[in-house]
Every structure is written in C-alpha cells, then in structure tokens.
Design goal:
- The structure holds 3 protein chains of 3 kinds.
- Chain A has helices at residues 38-54, 68-78, 96-107, 129-137, 191-197, 218-221, 245-258, and strands spanning 2-7, 9-11, 34-36, 57-63, 82-86, 114-118, 141-151, 154-160, 166-172, 175-179, 202-205, 224-230, 239-240.
- Chain A is of the alpha/beta class.
- Chain A has one domain (2-221): HUPs (Rossmann fold, 3-Layer(aba) Sandwich).
- The longest helix of chain A has 17 residues, at 38-54.
- Chain B has a 4-stranded parallel sheet with strand order 4-3-5-6. In chain B, strands 8-7-9-10 form a 4-stranded parallel sheet, sandwiched between helices.
- In chain B, strand 7, helix 13 (277-285) and strand 8 form a beta-alpha-beta unit.
- Chain B is globular, with a radius of gyration of 21 Å.
- The relative contact order of chain B is 0.12.
- By secondary structure, chain C is of the alpha/beta class.
- Chain C has 2 domains: 4-175, Rossmann fold; 201-323, TPP-binding domain (Rossmann fold), CATH 3.40.50.1220.
- Chain C has 9 helices and 17 strands.
- Chain C has helices spanning 17-33, 50-53, 73-87, 98-111, 220-230, 238-242, 273-276, 296-299, 308-323; strands spanning 4-7, 10-11, 14-15, 37-43, 59-64, 91-95, 115-125, 128-135, 140-146, 152-156, 171-175, 186-192, 206-210, 233-236, 263-267, 284-289, 302-305.
- Chains in contact: A-B, A-C, B-C.
- The interface between A and C is large, with 84 and 99 residues.
Chain lengths: 262, 375, 324
C-alpha cells in the first residue's frame, strides 16, 4: 500500500504565553518551540503501522519553510521512505483551501492508495485541508477517523462523532482519511535516527514546479484572510480563592459545605 | 533489530567475565525482577542473538552500577543493559512515558514536558542572580530540571539558595538557559540525545566564566564529572561544597533539630562517586541531631529505584519496592527523619512513606532542607 | 436579496441541539443581510421534522431520498451544491460537527466559495461578511474577512448562538432529489454507541475531571482520592484518554460525554472549548489550575490558582475532616 502523509510543523502553545505580533495578524514566534502537529503525528504512525503490516511505501508531504525539514527528517527517521517540501515566497498567507490546492498539485502526479493527515491542526483548529484535498484530487474522504481496516482497494473506517458515537463506513480507495488523536501510540524518533535520515534527500518544489500561478496561491489566491488577532477577554471570571494550598482548600470545602454540595 | 552477543562481547570486553555471579548477587532489582546481569553476559558469551524488544527486564535496571562495583574482573555488566536499551531506543518502540521524557528533553531542555520559559518560576520572590552571557561568578549553582519544575523539589532549590546566601559565596544560576544534563537519557540508551545535550551544554557553559559548579542532583554531578568530556570547571555535588563551608566556619548554626536522623546514600553520589563522608559530616554537624547509621549504608546502600530512567517507568514486578523496604528499615530503627541528597531518592522514598502508611512515623528530607532550618 | 441557508443536522430520528442554534443565528444573520433564512432538511422520511422547525425559519427546503437516509458527506454534498446553485444563498451555515467537518470543505471547493470553519460569531456590517474564530487552543481570537464572492460557506461552533424562538411560519418546499445513483465509494455501515463501562459519568451528581495537568498516569491516585473524599466519580479531558490513562467512557467533552452534575471540579484542565462544551451545564464549577490565565477560570464559579499536587491532597484532607 502506497501512502502519502501530509504533515505540518506547528508551534507548541499549550503551556506557553502567546503574544500577538505588532502586525496584528500573527503571533510572536520567538521563544516558541515547534514540532509536528499532534494529529499529523498520529496519522504518520498509522501510515507506518500499515506499511509494517502490509508492505508498501510512505511519502511525507509538507508545505513549509526550511525549518519544516526537521519535521520531515523526524518522519523519515521513523520509517517514511521519501519526503517532499513545498515552499515558495508566493505561498505566504495561504488559507486552508489554498494549502490543499498546493498539496494537491504536488500529489496528483504521484501513485498512491491512501492519503492520511491529521484531522485538525493545533495552531489554526480549522480542519479544512483533508476534505478539500480529497475534492481537488477527485477522491472520497472521511474525517475524524479513529480506526481504519485496510484491504486491497477498500477500507472500513470508524469516524468519531459527538458523545463518543462512532460512524462506521466502507470506503473505496484511493481516499483521504483525516486521523483523530488517540488512534495509536506514536513511536519515538531517536536523535541518531534523525541524523541518519538527514542523508535522505528531501525533494523541494516551488510555484513553477507545481504548475501553479501566483494568483492561485498565497494571500492572492486565498478567499479568506486573517483581518485581526485579539486576545480573548475573560468576561466572566471565577471567584478566586486566595491563600496557600491548605488555606484555600479549607475555604473551598467550607463554601462547598455551605452550598450543600458535600 | 537483533543484537549479536559476539558484538557485545567485543565492544564491552565481556570475555573477562568468570561467571562468578557477584553482579547478580549484588543487583538490587534482581530480588524483585527477572533482571540477571550474569545471565545476560552468559548469553553474550555463548554467542546468542538478543531480541532487545522482548527483553523487558532491561528496563528494571537503575544503573546503580553495583554490578560493576562488585565485579572482581572489572567487567561492567550494566553496559550490556545500556546497549540493549539503545537498540530499543533506535527502533523507536519505547513506552510512551519514556518517549515523552526524551522528546521533552530535546524540545524543551527538560524531561518533564514543561516549557523553558517557566524554568525559573521556582525562585518565586527569592533574589537569585541569573548569569548573563559573558558574566562571571565564583560558583555556578546548577539547579536541575527536577528542582526547577517539580513542586516538591523546588523546595530544595529554594532552601539551597537560602543556605548559599548565608555562606557569603558569590553564586549564580543559569536561569532559563539551563538545560538538562541528560544523564538519565544516557542511562535510557538514547546516546544521540545525550551527545547532543553534552555538546549544547559545553557550548552554553563556555559563554560564562565560573571556576566551580555545584549541583543539586548527584545525577547531574555524575554526568558532568564522569560522562562529559572537556569540562573546564571544578564540579561538585552540593554536599561537598556545604560540608566544606561548615568546616571553614562559613556556615554557623543557630538552631537545633532534636530528631533521630538516618541517611540513605544515593547510588549516584555514593556507589558511583564515593561521596559518603560529606553528607554525614553535614548531618552530624547539625545541633540536636541524633545520627543513626543504616545497616545497608555506603556502598551497600539499597537503591531506591529512581535512577536509570526509572522515574519514567513502572516496574513490571509486583514484589515489594526497594524504596518501601528502605522506609520500613528506617522506621524500624526508630528514625524520625530519613535524609537523602538526591531529588529522585527523595521523590521515590516519599512515595514509599505514603504507600507503606508511615506518614505519621517518618519524614523524608533532603539534607539541605534540614540545614536551612538551622543556619 | 442576500439569503441564508442553514443545514439541519439530525441523526437517528432526532434533530440535534446545534440545529436550533444555527437556525437562530441564521435568522439574525439573514436580517442583517436583508434576506431570509431557509432551513435545509435532507434525509429519508424526515417530513415530520418540519413541525419542530417551521417557527424557526422563513422557509424549509426538504429533499427526501433513500440515499440520504444516513449522513453521507458525498450524497449531502451533491444535493446541497445543487440547491445552492439553484437558490444562490449568500451564506450557507453548517454546524462544525462530526457531520459538518466532513462536508463543508469539500462543498466549498466544489462551489469555489470562500470557507471559514468553527466560527463563534458572524457579523454583516453594511452587508459585508466577517466572522470570528479561535486559534492556538483558544488563546487567540481571529477575525476573518472574505473576498467578494457569490456565496460563502461558514461552519458554526456549537453553543455559539442562543436558541431563540422567532415565531415564524416557514413555507415548506419539497424538492426532488438530484441523486441518481447509490454512492459506491463511501457507504454507511452502522453507528456504534459508546461503551457505558462500569461507570456512567453522566449520572453522577459530583464529577472530578482531570486533564493534562496530571502529567503521569501514576498521579491519578491523587485525584482518585479527591473523588473518593467528595463522593464523586472521576472523569477526564481528551488527552488523558489519548494517553490511555482512563477509558473513553470517562471523557467529558465534544467527542466524549456531556455531563450536568451538581458539582464539577476541573483539576489540571486548561478549559479548551472542546472540553468545556461537555461540562458547562454543571450547576457549580470549581477549577484548580496553576495557570491563572487558563480559560477554565472563565467558566468556573470558584477557582484556586495553585499547584494541583498541593491543593488536591489538601482538599481531600479537609473534605474527609468535614465528613468526620
């Protein structure tokens, strides 16, 4: 089975303080640590597991600047076979649909049975690329996949809906599946492994290589733009109980008792 | 990925082994797991092929190095464990907690999954000098990731700077620039990560001017002293420095601790680096302390199972934990306080006090926590 | 006329709550645009749903087809794009749900319409559309603007719009299904309910939720103690389930369970939207987190900013003392 995995390099922001750049349309990157998007990491692991079970190849594709090579090398170290990075100054400001367009232009010339990517990116939380990519390639898709059983030419997938409900589907391949976190346990890529993977060539493709025009990509090609970023204002705020842990705990248990909750 | 026994024999000089079994006999975890250093070497000598992923017992090892300590032929059996671990690391099939600790060390410079920008939060309101590039200090205090981020061990770091202030020494810390010594990553078998950390740290240290460094943790001390090459500064564990301060009357006592105190020798301070006397000197200098010596002390100290990457791994064994045996021994001898000088020992022993139900009977304290009460 | 379409989401014979939310939002948006709201109802044998919808839209377009019996983004997309081509609504609203996520992007590509997802607010000043969504785990709000286009696709976050009863009388229009064949390349097989497991957290009066702040599986005992001391059950946010520390049935959130206990204590939970969606209905919410900026404090009634490994054991102690 030949699998393409679309990955994205994103900043880790869950514990960091996020600040808005003076431009007002992006965040300050200095001090942030970057890594592969969590859901993409699960997609990558799923692809590697399928390759181990059924044979075949895994090709990584990313749209990103040079630093994204780190992400690709990590994927190669884990067992992916080839990697392609799509980069061009014209790509700056691409929204989700344009990103899908750029990925599609790179992928349409490749042979593949399956495309996997994360169901959501932890930076933009958009969940656009997967289904948009499928539509552009003219293949079916399924999102939020928590299980995929693959046979020749077909797959039975489980999709996660609200409340823990799962939807089971039969799909024909090739297809795009966007992968939900928790589907597997991603492996580790050692430092020496990543160093060895640096010897593998990463194919670099720009605007011309992909046969795209400037007005199809980047800010020019995007139908949506980030107009302004703001920090959310906490309208409602909890009554904060002050004091050292023991004190605060005592006050809180008093409050809970008063309200008849304990 | 298999590992050939013959290659191990050659690389690790295992042919000297006479199969006397002193290694397994002294291995603390062999009493509660299937880890058998002698057997591992036997298999290598017989030219067998190892399948490291199946050898789950290799993760029980705490790299306390008792086996190497006891070997009459200067073989280092635990290196076989490390080689097998390396093999598993390279395959990527490590337990999620280990994976997370390794990835965190690479990305954030600490194994605890915390961001670098919060590494100095432990200071709170304390005034601590943070060195800037090019700055000079007499003593660099290397705090340790666990002391920087673990709430319990942050108490040690706070006590340490309070005590250092009292000695009058000119000292400073690296603040958020401080990064993991990666000793545990080395013990887990991630050689590449350890090399990278070593390189980065050497480059980092070169940016400042300090003749001496003192560490909270014996693990950091061990890494800088024994595993790092080209270290240009004098490296001490804090017990060595503070013991000297007491000797030189730079620390005087104005209080007393009227308690029975015993001491657990951390493997990385004692067994591996032969620092036994200084911690005892400090404890025995504290007024009011009735010092009790454990039976298994010094080289025979019973490993707490905190080293060798064990802070990120659950043992497979259901037998009594060594830390629990240690706590029970300390309680049985009538000690009020079980003192130690290592963050990992502190955490595992404190856990054991809770799991054995001895919270009313004994307290676990780092030596610096006792000191800070009386200086 | 700038009209609005809103897709009705229903499953297993029931209209989902989010539908009523987007209908309310749709009516408001349509009024700002000077147009009307059409509810789009696709399915098989769904005619009776119009009773519940007719006061909430100006028009209901109903397309019934056996091939639309169970949600299938391929089938829904074909029908919806045909309807949109015919009626040319200015905005089409779709819930950002398991269904919506699967449908909206490919629909937008087929129509070549601008798309933005997971909006919590939509505005139309002087007929110009703009929308608001969250990024970076809810730490930043983004205002999105669009190029001129004949139509727009927006997916809407659950609980963004309050449910209003506008008291309209919808015109019901039945449209023939344009679907000609069964969709062979994507077939619905079944729904699988979440396992109930040994504990049904939706039935508990007191729930203690644990999140990523717990750091390691071993540390669960600290919170288990609290749950025991307070007489509650242990639940968690998604990362804890992903890590395999607690089973899926304990997950509170958009893709887990929705709970409405008398008391919910969120320990080491940042308060990302997906989790909050599952617990905001609790009567009293208490949050314990070391980050004073954690969004959870905006949802909670009471909060303690502190280290959970100190606060939780202390709280367990005090509660045990209270119980005597």
């Amino acid at each position: 089975m030949d699998i393409i995995v679309c990955v994205k390099r994103v900043p880790e922001t869950s514990e960091s303080d996020v600040k808005i750049d003076p431009s007002g349309v992006c965040i300050v990157q200095e001090g942030l640590v970057f890594n592969i998007n969590e859901a993409d990491n699960y997609a990558l692991e799923e692809a590697l597991l399928i390759k181990e079970k059924q044979g075949g190849t895994v090709t990584l594709v990313t749209m990103g600047a040079k630093a994204s090579d780190d992400t690709l090398r990590m994927g190669l170290a884990k067992g992916a076979d080839t990697a392609i990075r799509l980069d061009d100054p014209a790509f700056a400001g691409s929204d989700g649909i344009v990103t899908a367009r750029i990925l599609a232009s790179a992928i349409k010339g490749l042979t593949f049975d399956l495309i996997l990517t994360g169901c959501i990116a932890s930076d933009d939380w958009a969940s656009v690329v997967g289904p948009a990519l499928a539509e552009m390639l003219g293949i079916p898709h399924a999102t939020m996949v928590t299980k995929a059983e693959l046979k020749d030419g077909s797959a039975q997938v489980s999709r996660e809906l609200e409340g823990g409900l799962l939807e089971v589907l039969d799909m024909k391949l090739p297809a795009v599946l966007t992968i939900q976190t928790g589907i597997n346990e991603p492996r580790y890529a050692s430092i020496m492994g990543i160093a060895k993977a640096s010897k593998k060539e990463i194919a670099l493709k720009g605007l011309g290589d992909l046969g795209l025009e400037e007005d199809q990509v980047g800010k020019k090609g995007s139908k949506t733009t980030i107009e302004k970023l703001t920090l959310p204002v906490q309208e409602k705020m909890a009554e904060l109980i002050p004091g050292a842990p023991e004190e605060a705990a005592e006050k809180l248990s008093g409050i809970l008792k008063e309200r008849g909750l304990v | 990925m298999a590992v050939e026994g013959a290659v191990l024999c050659k690389d690790l000089d295992l042919y000297n082994c006479i199969q006397c079994g002193k290694c397994t006999g002294g291995c603390p975890v062999s009493i509660r797991s299937s880890l058998n250093p002698r057997r591992l070497i036997y298999e290598a000598l017989m030219g067998e092929r190892f399948n490291p992923i199946e050898r789950t017992e290799i993760w029980e090892c705490t790299t306390c190095a008792t086996c190497a300590e006891r070997c009459p032929k200067n073989v280092r059996p635990y290196e076989v464990v490390l080689e097998l671990r390396s093999n598993v690391i390279e395959s990527g099939r490590v337990k999620p907690a280990v994976r997370d600790a390794l990835e965190s060390t690479f990305m954030h410079g600490n194994p605890w999954g915390r961001v670098r920008e919060k590494r100095s939060e432990w200071m709170g309101d304390l005034k601590v000098t943070i060195l800037k590039e090019g700055d000079k200090t007499d003593l660099l205090y290397f705090v340790c990731c666990t002391a920087a981020y673990d709430p319990r061990i942050q108490e040690l770091a706070k006590s340490m700077v309070t005590v250092l202030d009292k000695t009058g020494v000119d000292f400073a810390v690296l603040g958020n620039a401080e990064s993991c010594c990666a000793n545990e990553m080395n013990e887990l078998g991630e050689k590449g990560l350890f090399e990278m950390a070593q390189e980065n740290n050497r480059e980092l240290f070169d940016k400042y001017r300090f003749p001496s460094m003192m560490t909270t943790s014996p693990h950091c001390f061990h890494a800088f002293k024994n595993e790092y090459s080209d270290i240009t500064f004098d490296i001490m564990h804090y017990t060595q420095f503070l013991s000297r301060m007491i000797e030189d009357d730079k620390l005087t006592f104005k209080g007393a601790i009227a308690k029975k105190v015993t001491y657990h020798d951390p493997c990385f301070l004692g067994k591996q680096n032969k620092i036994f006397d200084e911690p005892r000197h400090i404890l025995q200098s504290i007024p009011g302390v009735e010092y009790l010596e454990m039976d298994r002390s010094r080289e025979r100290s019973l490993c707490c199972e905190g080293g060798g990457g064990r802070m990120w791994m659950e043992s497979e064994s259901t037998e009594e934990r060594l830390a629990e045996i240690r706590v029970k021994d300390a309680v049985a001898m009538g000690a009020d306080v079980l003192a130690t000088a290592c963050p990992f020992c502190l955490l595992t022993l404190e856990d054991a006090v809770k799991t054995t139900g001895n919270e009313e009977k004994i307290q676990v304290r780092d030596i610096v926590e006792l000191l800070v009460e009386v200086v | 006329m700038k009209d609005v379409f809103a897709l009705v989401e229903h499953r297993q014979g029931e209209i989902l709550d989010v539908t009523y939310e987007i209908l309310s939002g749709g009516v408001e948006l349509a009024s700002k645009l000077g147009g009307q709201l059409t509810a789009v109802l696709l399915g098989s044998d769904v005619g009776s749903f119009t009773d519940q919808l007719k006061s909430r839209a100006h028009r209901i377009v109903v397309v019934e087809d056996d091939k639309l019996k169970n949600f299938n983004s391929e089938a829904y997309q074909q029908v919806l794009s045909a309807l949109i081509e015919d009626h040319k609504p200015y905005v089409t609203l779709i819930p950002q749900s398991g269904f919506g996520v699967d449908l909206a992007p490919s629909l937008a590509v087929e129509l070549d319409y601008p798309l933005t997802t997971d909006c919590y607010e939509i505005d139309a000043k002087d007929g110009v559309l703009s929308s608001f969504r969250q990024i970076y785990g809810g730490k930043v709000n983004a205002q999105i603007s669009f190029v001129d286009a004949p139509g727009y696709i927006l997916t809407v976050r659950a609980a963004s719009f309050a449910v209003e009863e506008p008291g309209l009388t919808a015109e019901i229009v039945n449209v023939d299904s344009p679907l000609t064949e069964e969709i062979a390349y994507r077939k619905f097989v079944d729904y699988v309910e979440a396992a109930v497991g040994e504990v049904d957290i939706t039935q508990a009066n007191i729930v203690v939720g644990i999140g990523r702040g717990i750091k390691e599986q071993e540390n669960l005992t600290v919170v288990e103690e609290l749950a025991k001391a307070i007489g509650g059950v242990l639940a968690c946010s998604r990362p804890v389930v992903d890590a395999g520390w607690l089973p899926k049935e304990r997950q509170v959130g958009a893709s887990g369970k929705t709970i409405k206990p008398k008391l919910y204590i969120a320990v080491g939970i940042s308060g990302a939207f997906q989790h909050v969606a599952g617990m905001k209905g609790a009567d009293t919410i208490v949050a314990i987190n070391k980050d004073c900026n954690a969004p959870i404090f905006g949802e909670a009634d009471y909060g303690i900013v502190g280290d959970l490994f100190k606060v939780v054991p202390a709280l367990s102690e005090k509660l045990k003392e209270l119980k005597g």
